[in-house]
Design a protein that fits this description.
Length: 740
């Protein structure tokens, strides 16, 4: 277990810091890189995982977290993403509770704090992986203090981490990495007394397995720590080569060596790790319920390639892209799907050399890891490759199809292996070229400055959706989703003219992009360009017949075009594909009003309020329709029922006050009007209708006052003007008759 002093470490041009100072330094570097994201908004996936996720609301039962996926959908649902991360969602709920609502600052600060903590703990992890595990009087020695610090700084400042730190949903990767580290460090603690079976503290191994389970409850990638622990056990603690181990186990030509493995307990520990991994995978599979998630060709086009050769080639090209992002993290994008990475369809594609270069480099590293005469080099390279590759395995498409092409946040853990290998390479260079220490120091400082600057720039881009989406246009100009998100952001900010341009480009790049068609159709509908809107929405539902939102929007357009039968059918199609669709019932009710089918309209709006009890528009329309058709008593009942659920809704108060006024319940009507005006004091119609109430009631001076307030707010209201003139004539007549 003892390791000699690593001779190349002292050549690294960094100060030799005490462990506490080194960890504080790493935490501060991490803080410096990402601090400007602390006041960012909720962006991109945060909308679904946080803003629209009811599991964060303290009013939602806590048990729901354990039965729902990361996005708040029930795991048994066919629409579930199957990403089971209850501990991560629990921390989101904690942020919500502490802030008293959805305030992004607290979420961002916790993410930055987690990355700083992980960066600090990386010092311990790198010191073990690079320098070995040596205990003196149960105190661990660090043989590579400078290399550990260098690898930790590279990790803390690597720009590939921006998505995980600045994007709040990256919390899953951060928590997974934290428990991953704790599991590894706890596993190492088991050997403080030595590697003999009787000296190994089995309780620390049990704690390590529990921490692995916690990592997996934060993100599925957490299970890979078992592979890292096993490799570390074999390669460092028991001081054997992988091929030597397989030779001893399976060829069994060295009985003494096999007995040595049994004596140290290695085989028992490997069996325990394997059994634990199998149990966790089985449990995870059972939790998924209906099987793995169903991804589409848009999510991961290479996995749908019919030609196996081309599928393998494209997978390997994806690996080379991930490697390039680690080497040169300048071209970063929030999404790499939908044409951002065109498929390789020929062996003569210009990108094929990148695959050869990747594998040439990896084979060279593997050769050194196996065949080098330097045992310390063999261990370092092997463990670096293990830490680089093993956490990436769940994202490699080998074991199951994943729902992305390239995702920067899945490299959070793998980047630790890259930083370890890079620190080792830089240390060897400093040792070999010690005469050029000044130049090497300058180059190292320049690299770190570039990393910090890039982190700062990228963190700033992640502060808002506008800057995040527009930054991707130069990186992935062929990505239809990038253009779609830019258009959606523009539309949300009211710039529909510019949004149309980006939606059209998204549809041009991806002609079957139904969501872009739906949003573009909605904008055209609002601009009264109904014919083109109908064509787009009809095309969207033809491509995806179960697209309920597009069916509903198509019904709205057809209703506006007075194609009533087609509109009704479209609404029912939407309801057929989405059973609980209150907005569709609401729009169906509006159609029935246009057709004078008042009972059907009331039934449709009642269905809307049953599915969504706080559907204000449906409640209000029921009251207005019953009022207009003379069913005042029923209108009063519906209005009072609505206000029990929505006691601060001024529109319902206004409609109910009108009904009560017609029923000559003047005092109660007055109360609702005044309450509505306290909520919305600048409502011309509310002042006007209150004036009508006072007019009927005989309180003419008050009627005059509110008519004048109404006309001041809306001088063009002809009905109010006529009523005011009528009141004025009546007042003049009264003044004349009462004059002496």
């Amino acid at each position: 277990m003892a390791q000699t002093e690593v001779d190349w470490d002292h050549h690294i041009p960094l100060p030799k810091l005490a462990p506490v100072k080194a960890k504080i330094t790493l935490a501060l570097v991490a803080l410096l890189c990402f601090i400007n994201s602390y006041d960012g908004d909720f962006v991109f996936d945060d909308s679904e995982a946080i803003v629209n996720n009811q599991d964060l609301n303290p009013a939602t039962p806590l048990n729901n977290i354990w039965g729902n996926d990361f996005w708040g959908s029930n795991l048994s649902s066919n629409n579930s993403h199957k990403s089971y991360r209850p501990l991560t969602v629990l921390t989101f709920r904690f942020n919500y509770l502490m802030a008293g609502g959805l305030h992004p600052v607290g979420f961002h600060i916790l993410n930055i704090g987690l990355h700083s903590l992980i960066s600090a703990l990386m010092f311990d992890m790198f010191s073990i992986l690079l320098g070995g595990l040596t205990y003196v009087n149960r105190k661990r020695l660090n043989h590579v203090p400078k290399a550990s610090l260098l690898a930790g700084i590279l990790f803390a400042a690597h720009p590939i981490h921006t998505e995980s730190v600045a994007g709040i949903v990256g919390r899953a990767d951060l928590l997974c990495a934290l428990f991953f580290q704790l599991s590894f460090l706890t596993y190492c603690k088991a050997f403080r007394g030595g590697t003999e079976r009787e000296n190994i503290a089995i309780h620390w191994i049990a704690v390590s397995l529990l921490l692995c389970s916690a990592a997996m409850l934060c993100k599925e990638q957490g299970i890979t720590v078992l592979g890292v622990n096993a490799a570390f056990d074999v390669l460092l603690i028991c001081n054997v080569n992988v091929f030597e181990l397989s030779h001893r186990l399976f060829l069994k030509k060295k009985t003494a060596d096999v007995s040595e493995l049994v004596r140290t307990g290695l085989l028992t520990r490997l069996a325990l790790l394997s059994l634990s991994g199998a149990s966790l995978l089985y449990t995870r599979w059972k939790i998924m319920g209906t099987g793995p998630p169903a991804f589409t060709e848009v999510d991961n086009p290479a996995s749908f390639a019919e030609n196996v050769f081309l599928r393998i080639v494209n997978y390997n090209y994806y690996y080379s892209l991930n490697a390039w992002l680690l080497l040169c993290p300048w071209w970063l994008c929030f999404d790499w799907s939908m044409g951002c990475v065109p498929l390789i369809k020929s062996a003569f594609d210009w990108r094929m050399p990148w695959l050869l270069l990747l594998w040439s480099f990896l084979i060279g590293l593997i050769n050194q890891a196996i065949c080098s005469q330097d045992s310390q080099r063999r261990r370092t390279l092997t463990l670096g490759l293990v830490l680089l590759v093993v956490p990436f395995l769940p994202a490699c498409n080998i074991f199951f199809r994943v729902g992305f092409v390239v995702a920067e946040r899945v490299l959070y853990l793998s980047s630790a292996g890259y930083c370890m290998l890079l620190a080792y390479a830089l240390g060897c260079c400093c040792c070999r070229w010690s005469k050029h220490k000044g130049l090497l120091r300058a180059l190292l400082l320049a690299l770190l400055c570039v990393y910090v600057a890039r982190c700062s720039m990228r963190s700033h881009q992640w502060r808002s959706e506008q800057s995040l989406f527009t930054s991707a246009l130069s990186v992935c100009p062929l990505n239809a989703k990038v253009h779609y998100n830019v258009g959606k952001n523009l539309a949300d900010r009211g710039n529909t003219s510019a949004a149309i341009k980006y939606y059209r480009e998204a549809v041009r790049l991806h002609p079957t992009y139904v969501h872009a068609m739906n949003n573009l159709g909605n904008i055209l509908k609002e601009r009264n360009e109904l014919v083109e809107a109908e064509d787009l929405l009809a095309k969207a539902v033809h491509i995806q017949p179960d697209f309920a939102a597009a069916w509903m929007n198509l019904g709205i357009v057809q209703n506006s075009l007075r194609k009533f039968e087609e509109a009704e059918q479209s609404y029912w199609n939407a309801i057929r594909f989405r059973k609980k669709y209150p907005d569709c019932y609401y729009n169906l009710g509006r159609l029935y009003v246009d057709l004078n089918r008042h009972l059907d309209a009331l039934n449709a709006w009642r269905n809307a309020t049953m599915l969504k009890p706080d559907h204000s528009l449906a409640w209000n329309n029921m009251v207005i329709l019953l009022d207009n058709t003379g069913n005042l008593a029923q209108a009063e009942v519906i209005g009072r029922e609505a206000l029990k659920l929505l006691p601060k809704d001024h529109t319902i108060m206004f409609s109910l006050a009108n009904v009560l006024g017609k029923l000559q319940k003047y005092e109660e009507s007055e109360g609702f009007f005044l309450h509505a005006l306290r909520i919305n004091p600048n409502s011309a119609s509310c002042h006007g209708n209150l004036a009508v109430l006072y007019h009927r009631w005989g309180k003419l001076e008050l009627a005059k006052k509110h008519y004048e307030l109404s006309l001041k707010l809306d001088p063009e209201a002809l009905g109010t003007r006529d009523n005011y003139d009528m009141l004025q004539r009546k007042l003049d007549q009264l003044y004349r008759t009462t004059a002496p």
